[in-house]
Write a structure and sequence with these properties.
The protein contains four helices and no strands. By secondary structure, the chain is an all-alpha fold.
C-alpha cells in the first residue's frame, strides 16, 4: 500500500515514452519482429508491380489486336481453300497482270485486288501470295 491507503498499482507508463525494443535478442541475433510499416519492399518488386499493373492491360490489348488480323487472314485463306473457283478466277486475273508486264505482287496489283475484294493492302498481299502458292505457281 502506498501512503494514501490505496493498494500499490503497477506504475503507469505512457506507451510513447516506453523504451523501444532492442534490435537484438539476448542471444545477440537480430529479432525478426518488425511492424509491417517498418519494412520496405525491394525496389525490384516495386518496379515489377508497377510494370505489371501498368503494362499488362496494354499487352493484353496488343495481343488481342495481333490475334484479330491473324484470325481474319485465316478465315480469308479458308474461304479461298473452300472455293477453288474463286482461286482459279484470281489466278486468271494474276495471269492478266503478268501479260501486261506487271507482277501479281506489285503495289498496283495488290491495290486492285484489295479494292475488288474489299481487303486491306496487307490482307490482299497475303491472299495473292497464298493463291499463287497453291493454285497458280506459274504466275509471277
Amino acid at each position: 500500500m502506498n501512503g494514501s491507503g490505496a493498494p500499490n498499482a503497477a506504475p503507469q507508463t505512457d506507451p510513447e515514452q516506453a523504451p523501444a525494443a532492442a534490435p537484438y535478442g539476448s542471444n545477440g541475433f537480430a529479432m525478426g519482429l518488425h511492424k509491417l510499416s517498418d519494412r520496405q519492399s525491394p525496389k525490384i518488386h516495386s518496379a515489377f508491380g508497377w510494370a505489371l499493373t501498368s503494362l499488362l492491360p496494354v499487352l493484353l490489348i496488343n495481343l488481342a489486336a495481333a490475334w484479330s488480323p491473324a484470325l481474319a487472314q485465316s478465315q480469308l485463306l479458308e474461304s479461298v481453300k473452300q472455293n477453288p473457283g474463286r482461286a482459279k478466277a484470281l489466278c486468271s486475273q494474276f495471269q492478266g497482270f503478268n501479260a501486261q508486264g506487271l507482277s501479281a505482287t506489285s503495289s498496283s496489283a495488290v491495290s486492285q485486288i484489295a479494292r475488288q475484294e474489299n481487303l486491306s493492302p496487307m490482307d490482299s498481299e497475303v491472299l495473292i501470295t497464298y493463291v499463287i502458292g497453291l493454285y497458280c505457281p506459274d504466275v509471277r
